[in-house]
Amino acid sequence: MCGIIGAASSRNVGKLLVQGLHKMEYRGYDSAGIALHQKDNIFNLRTLGKVSLLEDEMIEQRPKSKLGIAHTRWATHGKPSKKNAHPHESGEVNIVHNGIIENYLELKEKLVQAGYTFESETDSEVIAHLLHQHFQSKGDLLAAMHEAIKELDGAFAIAAIHIKDKNRLVVARNKSPLLIGVGLEENFAASDPLALSQLTNEFVFLEDGDVAEITKESYQVFDRKNSPISRDVTEIDIAVNAVTKGEYSHFMEKEIYEQPNAVANTIDGKLGDDDVLDNIFGLGSSEVFSKIKRIQFVACGTSLHAGKVGRFWFEQIAKIPCYVDFASEYRYRDPLVEEGTLFVTISQSGETADTLAALRYAQEKDYLSTLSICNVPTSSLARESEHVLFTNAGPEIGVASTKAFTTQLAGLMLLAMSIAKSLNKDKQNRKKLVHELRNLPKVIEETLKLSNEILSIVPNIADKHNALFLGRGMFFPIVQEGALKLKEISYIHAEAYPAGELKHGPLALVDDQIPVVALSPENTLTEKLVSNLEEVKARGGTLYVFGGEKAKIKIERGEYIQMPECSELLAPIIYTIPLQILAYHVACQRGTDLDQPRNLAKSVTVE
Ligand code: G6P
């Protein structure tokens, strides 16, 4: 992953670059570094740990410069350390890199033979030496970049500076997000527009194979064939309050409480009086949907859980079979594509490498069409899919996904309804769902009020090492999501099971040291679930159950928290909320760095 940023300006850029890194810490935060062009040298500073440590050193040293690059790292090759932090140097060149160079060992061997010495264990360092090598023959950083990237296999967003080039930054992109920010008497490059949100609202998104030179006065993009090319300028207004915590202690907390609004924004403008509107997934989408026979979902992490819930809705509402795959596995099993299959990717960032690679693989296959449910309109996934629904959740900064998930679910429900409409199925149910969807933000608000009740069970979970999560039907993916939330931010080992599977193994774990969290909504599976929970009680287990009025089970050890009344089909969205709140408070009690949990990153742009 990693975040890279570069600036060429008529003012000092050190502070701007560090501020930009702070906004990209969601991409990685195990080490950080900066390289600044100075009169006849390059100031290079690298620190182990978060960006704030780099900032402290910068405040102490106060280097002045109008041209620079910087980096926040999520380690892939080589442990987090000062040596492995970027920018990497090779003589007069300094570079920052996001991505993975797949043929780095081969390149390293050649470079060592040519006399280069490697200081780090990273794959990225080969880029610095390659640039240095090509600069020797070309005498120009831009020409050297054109040559160097011809030798690189893999994914990269690179920014480079050279001692002899005091005004110019050179960047290159392949399969890793990179854009130019256009300013007044200054121009920038970054992995994410968010990094530049206080500097400009005009962005040029680079494409794979692009190289660009950037000075304070201008920029020029070159395509794969080295021909100058003009790429569109996109205006994006990123509200500054969207990237600050405001009154909340953590971004995750803020994002949990933003869910009523976020979901309202997802459905806004998509519903008529009694039905979903036509073509909400783009012009011609309703026509394409009338030919659908199957759906293939592909996603990672939390987004995958959304797809697993979606499967139930598509089979119940649109009456079409649905498959769900891990993006990282999908293309390696040589999938058979049945006629009339819609390929759907789900992704908050729209930049997850495995999901993007799956889409590109699917484009070569015989799918009916491709569609993505995505939160970032400018992302690669959104740009490369034939149809898109933006979830409009606003920037999500906390690594643990919350509002992105519930808005993805709302988007999937809209998709199920749209397909059902195009296939003429289930009109009555759709009418009911339109009203229930409109009411959804209110029910989410009600659910958020359970926070105090949830707080009362937190101490009983925060001191444990393991937790078991149980649910049935479409609530199984919801408990998977609940277990994922708990483990990623509190570091408590949490496993999720369909409650009916309990007796096939996990029941052996049940004792008074393992809290069992269960979802017991009112539906056709309620009685069966309650019987499964009785099995836990009979073994002296402690139960924390979130359920509906009628699903109430008598609990001697543990707690029953009653959920607000809600629509049966939309209940997975509602039942997600208490599990988010629970994970959040457990992590707070354990004192973890929950917005930036250890070893994780928000946007995973490497395979
Ligand atoms: C990372 C994040 C998860 C996220 C997953 C997929 O692992 O930490 O929160 O669910 O990537 O990300 P995407 O942006 O594709 O939804």
Strand content: 15-25%
Instruction: Count every beta strand, where a strand is a DSSP E run of 2 or more residues.
Output: 25
Helical proportion, percent range: 25-40%
Structural class: alpha/beta
Question: What is the strand arrangement across the widest sheet?
Answer: 3-2-4-1-10-9-11-15
Mean pLDDT: 93
Please sum up the structure shown.
It contains 18 helices and 25 strands. By secondary structure, it is α/β, with parallel strands linked by helices.
Describe the 3D structure.
It is a single chain. The protein contains 18 helices and 25 strands. It folds into 3 domains: 236 residues, Glutamine Phosphoribosylpyrophosphate, subunit 1, domain 1; 197 residues, Rossmann fold (3-Layer(aba) Sandwich), CATH 3.40.50; 159 residues, Rossmann fold (3-Layer(aba) Sandwich). The chain is an alpha/beta fold and 607 residues long. The longest helix has 22 residues. Strand 16, helix 9 and strand 17 form a beta-alpha-beta unit. Bound molecules: 6-O-phosphono-alpha-D-glucopyranose.
